[in-house]
C-alpha cells in the first residue's frame, strides 16, 4: 500500500516537477513554446507537404464513397412510365418545325411565338418575355418563352421548372442549337398535361441564348433587378420553385446521360437530385450516366487515352492508375468550373435562388438512345421531384463528385486547403515574432529596458532585444494595393478595355506593375533599430492570405484549393532581401511576382473577357475577386521582395 | 317473398311518417353543371335544408338548458354544434386547387380560397365570450369534419367585417354581433372530409344527386371543395346549405381530347333515383353560347340558357350528356387573346430570395371600361410582417398612392395574432394597379416550426371585393365603413345593394414563404454543440473569477520562489525562450 503511494508520489513529482506548481507550469509552457519555435520550420514543412499531397491524393480510388438517396420522400424509380412512341412521334414533328425555323433564320421573336403557340395548343397558358443586357461587348437581347401548367388539385404554391435553352451547352454555348432539347420540353408539356397527379405547378421555359435568357427569366421571376438588364415582367406566375431540370440534347442521338451541376459562384445543388436522376436513368431506362460528358476510355476504346504516353505500360494497365486518371479528369473539370464561379450549364443560374437544379446532357453519339429514353427519364424524375413535401435538404450540398456513383464528403477534401492555409498562418506568425526581436551584441544597454529580457551571462555574449515593429506602413501598403486592385477591376470592365484588349492587356499589365514599383520609392525606411517594413508586410500578407483561404474553403472549395496552389508557396517564399542585395535582383523577383499576379492580362485574354462577361451578365464574383483580392496579395509579396529592408 | 313485401311496406310507411313529421323542415337539392370555355366542366351540388320558423339560439340563454332538438331532415350533429355555441351564421369551406377566375369566371359558391376557411357571426354577450365560443365551434367542427380546424387558433383569427358580411339576417338580440374569421391554406380536402359531409344529408349518398359524389372522381377534379353554410332568414327560419363544387376536366378523361361529357363519364355514376324526402331535386345545365352541341336526354324545361331536369318526377335513371359532334378534338382558346371573365383579375406574389425580407406585390387589373372600386383584405399571420410605410401603388410605373384609400391596419403580435389590412382600391378603367410593400420574415422559435419545416409556411389568400362600378362613389360603402369602426352589425343589410350580382369575393392564390429554418435533421448535434459551448464559456469565466494571480519567480532554483522577482508572468513569446532558458 505504502509502496504504491510512493510510486504515485514519484510519478506525480516527475510529471509536475518540484517546488512551486505555478513556476513549474510556467516552465513547462516555456519549454513547449520553445519546442514549437524550434520545430516551426519542420511544422510548416509538414503542413505544406501534407496539404499539397492531400490535394494530389483526392482522385485516389481508395477515397470516396458510393452515392445514395438520403431523402426518403423521393422514391426514385418507383413509378411506371407511360411516355411512349406516340409522344416520340410528336417530339419528332416539333423538331421538324424547329428545323424549319432554324433553316429560314427565324428571329428570336418568331421562335418564341412558335413555342407559345404550341403550349397554348396543349391548353397550357404561355407567354413570351423579351430581354436585353447592356454589356461592354455590346447589347445582348432575346426572347424567352414559358408556359405554366397549373397543377390540378394543388394550390400552386410550389413549382418545378423544366427548361431548355435555345443554345446547347456544347462548347459553353458556342452556337450549337439545342433543338432536340426544346422539342423534348414541348412534347413533355403536352404529355404531362394528361395527368392529374402533379402536386406542383410545372413551369416550362424555353430560354433564348445560352445563359443570358435564363438569367433574365429567373431573376425577373424572383423580382431581382440588375442595372444593365431590361426584361419584360412575367405575366404568368407560379409558386416557389424547388427543383429545376434543364435539358440539353444537341446531337442526333445519345449514348450516355451526362449530369452537369455546378452553379454560379461555386454553388452546388443538393446531391439527392442528381443521385435520383442518375438512379432513374441507370435502372429504369438503362441509360448509363456520366459526370459531365466524360466517357471513360476503359469503356469506350475510341475515347482518347487519359494517361500520358510516356507512362510505362504496367502503370497504364494498372486499374488504380486508370481510375486515378479518370477521377482526376472529373475533379479538374469540377474545379475549373467551381473556382471560376462559372455555371456548367443553364441549371447553374437557378442555384442563386436556392433552387436545386441540374442539366441532363444527352452526350452526342450515333446511338442507341433518343427521345424515347430521355422522355422516360424526365417523366420518372419529375414524378420523383413531385413527391417532395419540402425542399431538398437531407443530402449533401458540399461534395466532390469524382465518378458517376462515387463522391467525397466535405470532411475528406476540405483539410487539404485548410492545411496549406494553416501552414501560411504559422509562417506569418513566425515572421511577426521574428520581426519583433533582434540580437544585439552584449554590453550595449537596451534601449527599451522595460521590455528587454535578461539573458544568462554564462551563455554566449549576445542577447535578444525587443524591437519596434512598424504596423502602420505595411497596413497602408496593403490597403493601397487593394485599392489599386479595385481600380484595376474598374479599368478592365470598361468598354475601352474590351474593345482594344490586345493592346490594352499589355498596357494595363505594365501600368499596374509599374505603379507599385514607382510608389515603393516613397515608402519610408524604418530606422535600423526597428523591424524592417517588408518583414512585417510579409507577416501580414501571409496571415491575411491564410484567413482568405480558410474562409473561402467552406464557401467554394475549388477556389480555396486554387488559391492554396497559386499563393501557398510563392507567398511563403517571398523574403525581404538582405540589405546588401543589388536592386536588379530585387526587381527581378518583383517582376516574377508581377507575372504571377497580372500575367493573365496578357496570357489569357479570352479567359479575362469571359470573366468580365460573367460578372456583367450573371454577377459572378470571380473577376472582382481576382482583381481585388488575388492580385493585391501577390503584389504585396512582390513588394516584400522589392522594398529595401 | 312475403318478408320482402312486408319490409317494403314498412319502409313506405316509415317514409310517410318522415314526410309527415318533416312539415317544418324542407330539403331541396340541385346540381348545376356549367361547361367552361377551356373545356372543363363546373359542377355545383347544393343541398339546402330549411328549419322553418326556427331562430338561432340567443347566447343569453346559454346558462339555461337548451330546448330538446328533434330533427328529421336537418342534420342533428350540426344543429347541436350551432346551438351549443349559439352561432347565428356559419360558413365553412374546405377547398383544393386554385380557382382560375380569368377562365372559369365567378364561382357559384363564392368561397373558393385554397384550404380551409371558417367564419361565423355570433352574438356578443358577457356570459361567455365570443372567443370562447369560437374556440369551441372550431374544435367541434374539426371533430365533425375530420379536418385540422383546430389549427385555426388565435394566430389566424381576425374579424374582417367589411369583407365578410352576413349573408342572412342577424336576429334582433339586445347586443351586437361579432365576426370571427380564420383561414388555413395548408389544409387538404380529402375523402375523410367528404364522408362526414355526406352523413349530414338526409339521403346520404344513396339516392338523389348526392349519389354522384363519387370520391374517386370528385377528388380527381382540377378544383374541388365542400362548404357548409348556415344562415338565419328572418321570418323564414334557419337554413343549412351543404355545397360541393368541382371543376372537372372531360378533355383529360377522354382519350381523343374531346370535351364531350356525361354524368357517367365525369362521375362514373348516374342519378339512379331521386331522394324521396326532397321537396325539389333538379339537375341544371347551363347551355353554352355556341350552338354546335347536343344535349341528351331532352330537359324538362329551358329558361334563359339554363336547361333543367326535375328529378322528383323522374322514374328512370338520369344520365345527362353533352356532346359536340362537329369537333374532332377540343381546341383550347388562346389564353392571351380571350378576355378574362371576371371584372378584375388579381395576381399576388412574394418576390425576393432573401430569408429575412421580401416584397409583397399585388397586381389588380380592371377588365372593365369603367372605374371600379374594390375592397382589399389581407389577413396575414405574423410569419410575414408588413412595413406599411413602404406600401406603394403604381399604374404603369407611375406612382399613384392616391388610389389606395380608407386604409385600416391592425399590426400583428408576434407569436400570437395575425395582421389585418383592409383598404379600398380605386381601379381606373382597363388598367393594372400594382401595389408593392416590403415585408420582413421573422425568426421563429424552434418549437414553432411545423413538421416538414423546410417546406415553408402557407400564407392565406387575400380577398378582393369589387363593389362600385362607374365613376361615382358608393355611399353605401361609406356607411359600412363607419360600421366597421365599431365592428358591429345589428341589422340585416344587403351587402352591396347597387349591383348585388357583382359584389363577389375574389380570392387570390395562396403563397408559400420560406423562413429561416434550422437544420432539424440533427437536433441532437445542435443541442450537444450548444451545451459544449456553454460548458466551455462557463469553465473559462469561472476559472477567471476564482483564480488568484500571483507573481512567480522562475529561475534555476525552483525551490525558492521569490515574489519580488519579475518572473514568468511577464514572460513573452517565442524566440526569447530559446535564448533565455539556459540551465
From TrEMBL, chain A:
Residues 444-465 are annotated as: Disordered. Residues 451-462 have a biased composition (Basic and acidic residues). This is Gaa1-domain-containing protein. Keywords: Membrane, Transmembrane, Transmembrane helix. InterPro entries: Gaa1. SUPFAM superfamilies: Zn-dependent exopeptidases. It holds the Pfam family Gaa1. One of its GO terms (cellular component) is GPI-anchor transamidase complex. The chain crosses the membrane at residues 36-57, 396-426, 471-497, 503-523, 544-567, 587-605, 617-639. GO terms for biological process: attachment of GPI anchor to protein. It comes from Trametes coccinea (strain BRFM310).
UniProtKB/TrEMBL annotation, chain B:
The keyword Transmembrane applies. InterPro entries: PIG-T (IPR007245). Residues 1-22 form the signal peptide. One of its GO terms (cellular component) is GPI-anchor transamidase complex. PANTHER family: GPI TRANSAMIDASE COMPONENT PIG-T, GPI TRANSAMIDASE COMPONENT PIG-T-RELATED. One of its GO terms (biological process) is attachment of GPI anchor to protein. This is Gpi16 subunit GPI transamidase component. Residues 477-490 have a biased composition (Polar residues). Keywords: Membrane, Signal, Transmembrane, Transmembrane helix. The chain crosses the membrane at residues 524-545. Residues 476-501 are annotated as: Disordered.
Amino acid at each position: 500500500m505504502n509502496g504504491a503511494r510512493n510510486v504515485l508520489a514519484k510519478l506525480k513529482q516527475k510529471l509536475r516537477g518540484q517546488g512551486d506548481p505555478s513556476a513549474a507550469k510556467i516552465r513547462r509552457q516555456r519549454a513547449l513554446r520553445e519546442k514549437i519555435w524550434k520545430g516551426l520550420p519542420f511544422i510548416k514543412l509538414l503542413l505544406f507537404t501534407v496539404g499539397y499531397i492531400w490535394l494530389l491524393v483526392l482522385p485516389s480510388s481508395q477515397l470516396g464513397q458510393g452515392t445514395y438517396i438520403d431523402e426518403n420522400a423521393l422514391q426514385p424509380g418507383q413509378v411506371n412510365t407511360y411516355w411512349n412512341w406516340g409522344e416520340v412521334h410528336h417530339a419528332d414533328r416539333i423538331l421538324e418545325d424547329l428545323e424549319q425555323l432554324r433553316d429560314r433564320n427565324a428571329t428570336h421573336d418568331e421562335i418564341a411565338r412558335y413555342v407559345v403557340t404550341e403550349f397554348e395548343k396543349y391548353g397550357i397558358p404561355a407567354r413570351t418575355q423579351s430581354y436585353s443586357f447592356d454589356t461592354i461587348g455590346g447589347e445582348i437581347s432575346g426572347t424567352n418563352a414559358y408556359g405554366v401548367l397549373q397543377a390540378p388539385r394543388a394550390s400552386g404554391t410550389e413549382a418545378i421548372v423544366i427548361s431548355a435553352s435555345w443554345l446547347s451547352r456544347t462548347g459553353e454555348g458556342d452556337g450549337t442549337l439545342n433543338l432536340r432539347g426544346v422539342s423534348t420540353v414541348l412534347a413533355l408539356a403536352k404529355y404531362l398535361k394528361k395527368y392529374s397527379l402533379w402536386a406542383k405547378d410545372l413551369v416550362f421555359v424555353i430560354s433564348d441564348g445560352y445563359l443570358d435568357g435564363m438569367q433574365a427569366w429567373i431573376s425577373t421571376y424572383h423580382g431581382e433587378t440588375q442595372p444593365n438588364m431590361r426584361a419584360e415582367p412575367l405575366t404568368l406566375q407560379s409558386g416557389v420553385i424547388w427543383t429545376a431540370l434543364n435539358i440539353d440534347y444537341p446531337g442526333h442521338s445519345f449514348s450516355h446521360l451526362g449530369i452537369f451541376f455546378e452553379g454560379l459562384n461555386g454553388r452546388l445543388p443538393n446531391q439527392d437530385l442528381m443521385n435520383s436522376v442518375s438512379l432513374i436513368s441507370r435502372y429504369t431506362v438503362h441509360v448509363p450516366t456520366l459526370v459531365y460528358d466524360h466517357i471513360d476510355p476503359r469503356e469506350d476504346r475510341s475515347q482518347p487515352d487519359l494517361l500520358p504516353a510516356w507512362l510505362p505500360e504496367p502503370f497504364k494497365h494498372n486499374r488504380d492508375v486508370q481510375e486515378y486518371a479518370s477521377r482526376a479528369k472529373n475533379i479538374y473539370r469540377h474545379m475549373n468550373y467551381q473556382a471560376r464561379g462559372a455555371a456548367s450549364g443553364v441549371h447553374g443560374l437557378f442555384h442563386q435562388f436556392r433552387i436545386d437544379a441540374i442539366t441532363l446532357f444527352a452526350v452526342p453519339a450515333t446511338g442507341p438512345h433518343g427521345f424515347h429514353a430521355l422522355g422516360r427519364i424526365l417523366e420518372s424524375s419529375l414524378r420523383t421531384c413531385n413527391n417532395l413535401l419540402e425542399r431538398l435538404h437531407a443530402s449533401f450540398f458540399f461534395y466532390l463528385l469524382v465518378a458517376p456513383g462515387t463522391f467525397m464528403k466535405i470532411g475528406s477534401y476540405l483539410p487539404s486547403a485548410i492545411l496549406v492555409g494553416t501552414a501560411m498562418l504559422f509562417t506569418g506568425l513566425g515572421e511577426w515574432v521574428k520581426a519583433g526581436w533582434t540580437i544585439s551584441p552584449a554590453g550595449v544597454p537596451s534601449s527599451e529596458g522595460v521590455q528587454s529580457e535578461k539573458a544568462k551571462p554564462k551563455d554566449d555574449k549576445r542577447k535578444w532585444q525587443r524591437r519596434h515593429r512598424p504596423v502602420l506602413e505595411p497596413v497602408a501598403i496593403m490597403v493601397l494595393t487593394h485599392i489599386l486592385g479595385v481600380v484595376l477591376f474598374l479599368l478592365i470592365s470598361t468598354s475601352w478595355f474590351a474593345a482594344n484588349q490586345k493592346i490594352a492587356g499589355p498596357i494595363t499589365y505594365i501600368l499596374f506593375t509599374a505603379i507599385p514599383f514607382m510608389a515603393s520609392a516613397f515608402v519610408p525606411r524604418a530606422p535600423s533599430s526597428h523591424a524592417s517594413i517588408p518583414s512585417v508586410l510579409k507577416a501580414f500578407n501571409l496571415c491575411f492570405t491564410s484567413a482568405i483561404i480558410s474562409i473561402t474553403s467552406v464557401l467554394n472549395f475549388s477556389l480555396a484549393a486554387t488559391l492554396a496552389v497559386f499563393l501557398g508557396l510563392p507567398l511563403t517564399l517571398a523574403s525581404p532581401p538582405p540589405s546588401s542585395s543589388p536592386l536588379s535582383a530585387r526587381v527581378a523577383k518583383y517582376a516574377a511576382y508581377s507575372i504571377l499576379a497580372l500575367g493573365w492580362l496578357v496570357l489569357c485574354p479570352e479567359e479575362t473577357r469571359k470573366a468580365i462577361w460573367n460578372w456583367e451578365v450573371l454577377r459572378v464574383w470571380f473577376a472582382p475577386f481576382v482583381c481585388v483580392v488575388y492580385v493585391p496579395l501577390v503584389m504585396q509579396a512582390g513588394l516584400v521582395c522589392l522594398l529595401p529592408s | 317473398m312475403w318478408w320482402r313485401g312486408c319490409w317494403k311496406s314498412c319502409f313506405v310507411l316509415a317514409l310517410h311518417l318522415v314526410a309527415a313529421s318533416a312539415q317544418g323542415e324542407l330539403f331541396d337539392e340541385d346540381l348545376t353543371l356549367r361547361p367552361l370555355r377551356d373545356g372543363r366542366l363546373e359542377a355545383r351540388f347544393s343541398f339546402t335544408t330549411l328549419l322553418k320558423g326556427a331562430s338561432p339560439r340567443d347566447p343569453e340563454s346559454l346558462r339555461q338548458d337548451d330546448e330538446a332538438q328533434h330533427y328529421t331532415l336537418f342534420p342533428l350533429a350540426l344543429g347541436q354544434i350551432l346551438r351549443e355555441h349559439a352561432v347565428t351564421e356559419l360558413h365553412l369551406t374546405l377547398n383544393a386547387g386554385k380557382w382560375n377566375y380569368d377562365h372559369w369566371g365567378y364561382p357559384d359558391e363564392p368561397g373558393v380560397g385554397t384550404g380551409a376557411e371558417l367564419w361565423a357571426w355570433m352574438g356578443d354577450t358577457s356570459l361567455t365570450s365570443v372567443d370562447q365560443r369560437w374556440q369551441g365551434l372550431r374544435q367541434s367542427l374539426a371533430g365533425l369534419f375530420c379536418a385540422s380546424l383546430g389549427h385555426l387558433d388565435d394566430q389566424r383569427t381576425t374579424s374582417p367585417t367589411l369583407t365578410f358580411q352576413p349573408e342572412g339576417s342577424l336576429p334582433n338580440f339586445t347586443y351586437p354581433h361579432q365576426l370571427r374569421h380564420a383561414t388555413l391554406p395548408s389544409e387538404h380536402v380529402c375523402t375523410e372530409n367528404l364522408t362526414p359531409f355526406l352523413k349530414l344529408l338526409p339521403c346520404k349518398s344513396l339516392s338523389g344527386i348526392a349519389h354522384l359524389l363519387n370520391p374517386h372522381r370528385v377528388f380527381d377534379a382540377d378544383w374541388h371543395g365542400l362548404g357548409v353554410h348556415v344562415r338565419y332568414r328572418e321570418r323564414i327560419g334557419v337554413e343549412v346549405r351543404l355545397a360541393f363544387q368541382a371543376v372537372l376536366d372531360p378533355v383529360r378523361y377522354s382519350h381523343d381530347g374531346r370535351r364531350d361529357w356525361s354524368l357517367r363519364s365525369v362521375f362514373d355514376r348516374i342519378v339512379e333515383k331521386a331522394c324521396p324526402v326532397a321537396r325539389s331535386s333538379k339537375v341544371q345545365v347551363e347551355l353554352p353560347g355556341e350552338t354546335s352541341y347536343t344535349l341528351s336526354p331532352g330537359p324538362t324545361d329551358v329558361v334563359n340558357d339554363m336547361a333543367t331536369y326535375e328529378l322528383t318526377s323522374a322514374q328512370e335513371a338520369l344520365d345527362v350528356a353533352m356532346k359536340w359532334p362537329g369537333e374532332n378534338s377540343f381546341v383550347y382558346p388562346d389564353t392571351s387573346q380571350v378576355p378574362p371573365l371576371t371584372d378584375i383579375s388579381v395576381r399576388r406574389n412574394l418576390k425576393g430570395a432573401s430569408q429575412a425580407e421580401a416584397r409583397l406585390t399585388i397586381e389588380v387589373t380592371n377588365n372593365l371600361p369603367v372605374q371600379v372600386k374594390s375592397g382589399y383584405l389581407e389577413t396575414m399571420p405574423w410569419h410575414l410582417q408588413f412595413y406599411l410605410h413602404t406600401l406603394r401603388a403604381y399604374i404603369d410605373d407611375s406612382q399613384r398612392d392616391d388610389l389606395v384609400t380608407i386604409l385600416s391596419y391592425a399590426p400583428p403580435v408576434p407569436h400570437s395574432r395575425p395582421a389585418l389590412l383592409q383598404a379600398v382600391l380605386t381601379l381606373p378603367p382597363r388598367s393594372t394597379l400594382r401595389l408593392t410593400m416590403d415585408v420582413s420574415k421573422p425568426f421563429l422559435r424552434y418549437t414553432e416550426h411545423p413538421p416538414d419545416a423546410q417546406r415553408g409556411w402557407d400564407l392565406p389568400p387575400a380577398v378582393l371585393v369589387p363593389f362600385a362600378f362607374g365613376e361615382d362613389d358608393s355611399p353605401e360603402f361609406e356607411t359600412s365603413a363607419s360600421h366597421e369602426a365599431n365592428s358591429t352589425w345589428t341589422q340585416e343589410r344587403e351587402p352591396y345593394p347597387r349591383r348585388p350580382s357583382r359584389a363577389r369575393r375574389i380570392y387570390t392564390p395562396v403563397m408559400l414563404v420560406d423562413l429561416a429554418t434550422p437544420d432539424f435533421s440533427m437536433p441532437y448535434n445542435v443541442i450537444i454543440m450548444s451545451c459544449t459551448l456553454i460548458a466551455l464559456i462557463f469553465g473559462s469565466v469561472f476559472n477567471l473569477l476564482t483564480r488568484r494571480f500571483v507573481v512567480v519567480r522562475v529561475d534555476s532554483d525552483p525551490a525558492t520562489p521569490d515574489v519580488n522577482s519579475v518572473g514568468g508572468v511577464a514572460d513573452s513569446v517565442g524566440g526569447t525562450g530559446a535564448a533565455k532558458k539556459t540551465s
